[in-house]
Design brief:
single chain; seven-stranded mixed β-sheet; five-stranded mixed β-sheet; globular
């Protein structure tokens, strides 16, 4: 286990990389002894720095859940992180890369869960997730890496708060008990051209199963889901790089649509 001074230093490095939009060399390359537990402790230091500047946790996220994304990033197990109020942007809005300090953003289309009840692992099942969910919504997560050129291993992305950038929820709020979430279909377009598609089943077989995994993983660390939190369940299709001038749109069958555009 890394000592506390190094954990703090690496968390502070990640925060500086965010603030300055200057990516770091992979942590795993510089510290091959880095474990997942160390990475999680680093992520908490990173989060603490953001909270000290007034950010507030409003949810959690699971990432790297689908095979398509795992193959793209060469990371073969899910990651997890925290969502803050500063990360949320309005559906249909213009996202300034400079304002939100994005370095190498990529768009994910996914399903967001909005909780009606607290939920705490271990022992949470997909059925428990469904019962605790108030509604689901289409969501764009714009992931971003503070690690240079996305050269990440699982420990890098966990330390980097699961490569969180910003996210936007579409307007629809749907009762998840009215849908077969494994069968919903996502279609994305970048600047009017098809940019990827996928089914809900791409996310660990069912989005509720992915959320249950996250509840259990964080539960082992003593972190519960809270009523009202937003939980992002993972990308249904490969990530789409975006840059200033781009517009990204999506539609998820039974759930509705979302869109974002990007500026300098």
């Amino acid at each position: 286990m890394m000592d506390d001074h190094l954990i703090k230093a690496l968390g502070d490095e990640l925060h500086a990389a965010l603030r300055e939009r200057k990516p770091l060399q992979p942590l795993t390359g510089r510290h091959p002894e880095l474990t997942l537990d160390d990475a999680y402790r680093i992520s908490l230091q990173f989060l603490q720095r953001r909270e000290a500047l007034g950010e507030r946790v409003i949810g959690k996220k699971i990432g790297v859940t689908s095979k398509a994304v795992q193959d793209m990033l060469d990371v073969h197990q899910p990651d997890f992180g925290f969502l803050t109020d500063r990360m949320q942007v309005a559906d249909g809005s213009a996202v300034s890369l400079a304002e939100y300090r994005l370095i190498a953003p990529r768009a994910e289309g996914e399903i967001a869960f909005i909780l009606a009840e607290d939920l705490s692992g271990p022992g949470v099942t997909a059925s428990d997730v469904l019962a605790a969910t108030e509604s689901v919504a289409p969501c764009f997560e714009i992931v971003d890496s503070r690690i240079a050129n996305w050269q990440i291993r699982i420990e890098d992305t966990v330390a980097d708060n699961a490569s969180c950038g910003v996210f936007a929820l579409g307007e629809a709020r749907i009762d998840p008990r009215q849908l077969d979430l494994a069968s919903v279909e996502l279609n994305m377009h970048l600047n009017g051209q098809p940019a990827g598609s996928g089914l809900g089943s791409a996310v660990q077989g069912h989005p509720c199963a992915a959320v249950a995994w996250l509840a259990n993983t964080l539960g082992e660390l003593g972190i519960p889901f809270r009523r009202g939190e937003i939980i992002l369940s993972g990308a249904l299709a490969p990530l789409v790089p975006v840059t200033a001038g781009d517009q990204i749109d999506m539609h998820i069958s039974g759930l509705g649509k979302a869109s974002l555009r990007f500026t300098d």
